[in-house]
# Entry
Amino acid sequence: MSRKICIVTGTRAEFGLLRWVMEAIESHSDLTPQVIATGMHLSPEFGSTYHEIEAAGFQIDARVEMLLSSDTNTGVTKSMGLGIIGFAEAYERLMPDILFVLGDRFEIFAATAAGMIAGIPIAHLHGGE
# Structure
């Protein structure tokens, strides 16, 4: 039985690091990658970089829109709230076996908060160095 590994990515820089892990997951016969794009990937202001994920040959299984145009403390907190709602819905639909995240940006915090509440084991690479 294949295990579903859900990778969340919110920025081009983060995807550049995750790409190699995603390729390794994809090449393993007992693993199925699931990709959730969020944050700057979905923003035209930041280049709609979700296209780079698709150009690299990965299917985006869910898109979690969460960015507000405000970068104040209140605006970022509201964005996180939207993210938690979106991730909860995505996880309910995708039913991943494990969540794989990189970094410590607020998009990833929202993704892991929703994952923890859903009881999904979380693999976290880097953050806070």
Q: What stands out?
A: Helices lie at 12-27, 50-55, 73-94, 106-117. The longest strand covers residues 31-38. The CA atoms of residues 66 and 83 lie 5 Å apart.
